[in-house]
Amino acid sequence: MNRQWHIGIIGYGWAAGAHIRAINSLPNAQVTGVYSSRRLDSMELSARHGSDILYYAELDALLNDPTIHVVSICTGHADHPRQAIAAAEAGKHLIIEKPIGLTLEDCRAVARTVVRAGVRACVCFECRFSNQFMTTKTALDQGLLGELHYGEVDYYHGIGPWYGQYRWNIHKAGGGSSLLTAGCHALDGLLHFLGEDVQEVQTYATRSRHPDFARYEYPTTTVTLLKFRSGRVGKVASVVDCLQPYYFHVHLVGSAGSLLDDRFYSAPLLGTPPSAWGRLPMKLLDSGDVADHPYARQFAAFLAALERGEEMPETSLRQALRTHEVIFAADRSAAEGRPVRLDEIQAG
Residue 295: CA atoms inside 13 Å, Cβ hemisphere, count? Predict the structure, then answer.
């Protein structure tokens, strides 16, 4: 690690604080600038985060600062495409909070600009860097479950008025959909485990009758069934209107065993017939609080890829765009009440 990366933050809200902590924890990176539409004080920012941080009142001022190499976009969902395009055109590498955008057209515009500008980007599907997902993927790669044919990854997180993002998340122009605003982590996880070769999706949508969730402008619970070209099938539930503790459910079924969250059965290891679950040593994803998310591992991997001049192996913009294509196909399926093939989305 020969280079010290100076990183600018666009937007100073809940996610930004987690990004700053993660970046400043790395030996080769430091946040040196923050742009926010809300007036901030550079001395107060520096004192709060333990590093010299300059406040920029104008986005262009931050993007035109030649000492900043990377920008992290932590604003509202609808602002991501415009700001990502401006940053790429300014020659900055990008960290983009999910989602990339609220329309597929916007997401593709970001991707085209990144390629044209010759910069690189990662998208915050940071759950791939969680202990749970990394341990699960290692078990799969070691063949403990054999060849997978079914998987379900479900996201349960009640985003009500007790939660900070509720005030803007209830609006379609803010949250977008249940999958776009939160359940995308589960869908991305399913693609991580089963593959990206989705052929067709069918999505059903419903919503809670609880008054706290009645203010949402879009269905707050969706269930998506996925058919893969490989013959695999999968399911993703995205439930942001539940009254329960946060729960990230993973169940994978293969020719040699199954995995259920942190439990597993593997015929090659334990013999047959199955009679008891084994346990994998992992920390389960158990919080929607961004302070608990594994940003540091993701950002370290991104910076390492930048130093190599390569696309990062996980959560690259290319991978994230594929996840978004499946999300938009699922949302179209729910809206139109029919199965949607991915080639319909890709041809659009």
Answer: 25
Per-residue pLDDT averaged across 87-106, rounded? Answer: 98
Average pLDDT taken over every residue of the chain: 95
Question: Which has more pLDDT, 117 or 347?
Answer: 117
Cα 121 to Cα 61, 107, 225, 315, 318: the distances in Å are 21, 12, 29, 9, 9
Homologous superfamily (CATH) of 5-119 is NAD(P)-binding Rossmann-like Domain (3.40.50.720)
Q: Which pLDDT value is given to residue 132? A: 96
**Residue 304: φ, ψ to 5°:** -65, -40
Contacts of 218-222 with CB under 8 Å at 24 or more apart are 218/172, 218/175, 218/176, 218/177, 218/178, 219/177, 219/178, 219/334, 220/178, 221/178, 222/177, 222/178, 222/179, 222/183, 222/330, 222/331, 222/334
Domain with residues 128-291+323-346, CATH architecture: 2-Layer Sandwich (3.30)
In this prediction, residue 117 has a pLDDT band, given cuts at 50, 70 and 90, of very high
